[in-house]
Specification:
Rossmann fold; single chain; binds guanosine-5'-triphosphate; six-stranded mixed β-sheet; globular; alpha/beta; 230 residues; binds magnesium ion
Length: 230
């Protein structure tokens, strides 16, 4: 098989997870990979202290021109922002370096993980500014809002879409500003791969709409350098 042919039969998807501490970033990464590769647990201190990359190949994930295409998924997990133990500058530097090392040219898509069951307030604003500082204003066109803890909405007996329609303030503004919308996940389910499949498909759709262009990091002079990080 020639290189061109091999490339036709594979599809790369590089996903960057961003979110506040304990929002469910690592658990969402696990759902995407269908594994428990990323350490994920309840913690007051925050679990993920540095970026971590995991990958998985899904043979025959989709069909193209009658041929099976394998999905080559890479997921970069990151420390939460704004963090409790690491300074904002430290997290920014870690994420910028992690993304640069993991993905030549940047990720295809950002999964912005936000808890569906808690209000989106000042921390949320800081998170959005963080994404903008990392990638510039173009970040929104490469981002899918991933609403974790969806089961809490279900348990309250509220229809998920209705729940979002009732939102107001900063969360409503965020929702309205993201052209690719949102996706609910319930990361506590035992069948990770089933829960992850629809999320993967949505992330691929975002990537396809962007014609597989990557999201480039902002020029490094607008990001903290090692010497300036406390
Ligand atoms: N019920 C429920 N629990 C979740 C969900 N997502 C994450 N959790 C739980 O929330 C806690 C934190 O999840 P993590 O995946 O470690 O979150 P994180 O954002 O990676 O956390 P840090 O690395 O500490 O920033 C864990 O106990 C998870 O099991 C979800 O969708 N539903
Ligand atoms: Mg984590």
């Amino acid at each position: 098989m020639g290189t061109d042919e091999a490339e036709l039969q594979t599809l790369a998807l590089d996903v960057l997870l961003l979110g506040a501490p304990q929002s469910g970033k690592s658990a969402t990464g696990n759902v995407l990979l269908g594994s428990r590769d990323f350490p994920s647990s309840l913690s007051l201190a925050g679990v993920t202290r540095e970026c971590q990359l995991h990958r998985r190949v899904f043979p025959g994930f989709l069909r193209r021109r009658g041929e099976e295409v394998a999905l080559h998924l890479r997921v970069l997990d990151t420390p939460g922002y704004p963090g409790c133990l690491l300074s904002p500058e430290r997290v920014k530097q870690a994420v910028a370096e992690g993304a640069e090392q993991a993905f030549a040219g940047g990720p295809h898509v950002v999964a912005l993980v936000v808890r569906a069951d808690v209000p989106f307030c000042e921390d949320g604003h800081q998170l959005l500014r963080f994404a903008e500082e990392l990638f510039g204003p173009g970040w929104k066109s490469h981002t899918l809002l991933v609403l974790s803890h969806a089961g809490r909405v279900d348990q309250a007996g509220i229809d998920r879409e209705e729940y979002l329609r009732q939102s107001s303030g900063p969360f409503h503004t965020l929702l309205a500003s993201l052209e690719h919308g949102y996706h609910f996940v319930e990361n506590s389910v035992p069948w990770l791969q089933t829960e992850g499949r629809t999320l993967l498909e949505k992330l691929l759709l975002v990537t396809r709409r962007n014609r597989y262009r990557r999201l480039q990091l902002s020029a490094s002079d607008s990001l903290p350098s090692k010497g300036t990080v406390r």
